[in-house]
Amino acid sequence: FRTSDEPSGLRELRKLREKKLGSDPGSPEGPRRPLRERISFGKAIKVVLALAVGWILLAIVLFFVSAQTSEGVDDRTERALNGGGSLFTGSTILVIGSDARPKGSKEPGAGGPSRADSILLLHVGFGTVRRLSILRDSLANVPGHGPQKINAAYAFGGAPLMIRTVRGFMGNGLRINHVIEVNFTEFPELIDSLGGVKVKLSRCVASDPFSGRPFRLRKGEHTLNGRQALAFARVRKNRCNKGENDDARARRQQQVLSSIRSRALSPNGFARAPWIAWAAPRTIKTDLKGPGMAGLFTDLLTGGSGKTRVLLPSGPGPAGSLVIADSQKTRQVRALEGDR
To answer: What pLDDT is recorded for position 1?
Structure first.
């Protein structure tokens, strides 16, 4: 049975069907490829890029909305700052993490005045981040209260007094341009938005009950959720190693911060970008506005992989405090500001 023997009506119907399917052999252009084959690789890349850009724009919008609606610092705190500085040319930021317990916590000290649980100086500028950790038991002169452990300044006068105390304690013309108060109540939400953080332990870590629950991690690698990461960062007396001091605690906090950074920059972080963008500004109170906050987080992600320096003590002081030598302060301020 030859094609030429087909009735004309049937032949026309067959040609119409072949044309719709893209395989008309009589076409002057020859047989056409199926539609799926005609979608080029370049077009597929453009679609993927458009979706990626849209995803990033959504994250940016959520970040600025979250930053705009988050709680800022009060006027007293802003007046205590030196002002000036730029996240592009160089700015020094005091980061304060308080030991305030969540409402209803059964931990010792819950309900009392909050002290600074962690004290960190950041020098940020043009994609470079340098960090200096100040041990909370460092002996300092707290204005109006005399010699005290430096973390007591936060209990006596909040962020304004803490700024004045750290500036006087470090000396050497240190200017504190901005302040960040870490909200540990919201901190677990940020960790959970990342899908948890990974830590690797050379030995076990155990402490007194955190928020009414015992906390213990075995030696090895762990992925911690928000509540676990907060408990890990705040362990002060490790039952697995009673010889540990605040320096070990600072290293644990640095491990959490490094893991936050690596998770945020991973493919997992990209997939979770909108959730991370919403949670990040809500974990802090700061004088920085939306653009400044965005610049800070960008610098922390792109230039924040360096080691955190620790202001080490030269010996013990009264009432369990730690004495820091002036020469150590001078050396660390110069390193912080990049003037080695």
So the answer is: 46
Angle between helices 246-264 and 226-234 (to 10 degrees): 150
pLDDT, residue 235, reads: 85
Inside any domain, residue 31: no
Cβ contact 149:321 at 8 Å: yes
- pTM for this entry: 0.79
SS3 144: coil
Would you say how long the chain is, in residues? 340
Print the domain residue range for 86: 51-336
Look up residue 158 and give its two tokens.
Answer: 């909040």
Q: How far is CA 243 from CA 26, 148, 217, 246, 255, in A?
A: 88, 23, 18, 10, 20
pLDDT in the model for residue 133: 92
Closest by Cα among 257, 243, 137 to 194: 257
What residues of the chain score a pLDDT lower than 50?
1, 24
Q: What is the DSSP string of 31-90?
A: SPPPHHHHS-HHHHHHHHHHHHHHHHHHHHHHHHHHHHHS----HHHHHHS----BTTTB
Output the CA–CA distances (angstroms, integers) from residue 90 to 85, 116, 123, 134, in the order listed.
6, 25, 7, 20
Tokens standing for residue 86: 């730029």
Tokens in use for 66?
Answer: 């979250």
CA torsion angle 35 40 45 47 (round to 10):
-40
Residue 35 lies in a domain: no
The reply to whether 101 falls in a domain is: yes
Question: Distance between CA atoms of 293 and 286, rounded to whole angstroms?
Answer: 8
Q: Report yes or no on 22 lying in a domain.
A: no
* CATH code at position 55: 3.40.630.190
**Which of 227, 284, 287 is CA-nearest to residue 101?**
227
Rounded (5°) CA angle 57-61-65 = 170
